[in-house]
Amino acid sequence: MFGVGSTDGHEVMFLLECDAPGVLLKRCPVFSGMEGTGTYSVRLTNVFVGDDCIIADPMRPFIARIRGAFVVLQCGMGLGVIQGAIDCCWEVDDQLGHVNEFLHDRPDELQAELDELTMRVNRLAAEPCNGSKDHLIDTLDASAHCSELALKASQPALLHQGARGYLMSAAPQRLIREAHFVAIVTPALKHLRKEIARLSQPVCPA
User: 166: which of 16, 91, 114, 133 lies 20 to 30 Å off by Cα?
Assistant: First the structure.
């Protein structure tokens, strides 16, 4: 799905066959995590787009309508990383619980925060195309919370597992890299916070 603009500012969104004439895909440099996302750069040269491929014309109103749905959809990735990190903590509790109890960010505390966040995301997902500004701000904030909690939970996963979690093949190593991916993937945590600040500014009367 792509959007393209013309020199006169007219923008459309359309479906693209990646093996169509004039379409060139180039694999991005290797990521340290989440390589399964299959991220490519795409170059189009004289590509014909038929009417049956047009999703939205003009594009901007459609983007505004689906923006919240797109953001809340990405929350699932963060929620999964967080749960995986918590599970890594519990995995060693029988053997290392007597020392892990002295660590901050214990798995029961992280799980409580995750459960509350999951319920919040589910409420937002029930109205994916709610066009209100308040709903969008809440959605952006929930996505930011997913990023922050993924970062917060991935480090305890390593600390709770200790040396075994420091092995390159250990799950906490992967989860730490995945948590950083969650925090930098579009929209990145910094962009979420910037947009929340912009939307939260009072509207001055003309």
Answer: 114
The secondary structure of 120-181, three-state, reads: HHHHHHCCCCCCCHHHHHHHHHHHHHHHHHHHHHHHHHHHHHHHHHHCCCCHHHHHHHHHHH
Classify 52 as helix, strand or coil. Answer: helix
Mean pLDDT, residues 68-96: 96
Rounded Cα gap, residues 97 and 14, in angstroms? 53
C-beta of residue 27 within 8 angstroms of C-beta of residue 40: yes
pTM of the model: 0.87
Residue 158 to residue 151: CA distance in whole angstroms: 12
- Alpha-carbon distance of 121 to 140, in angstroms, equals 10
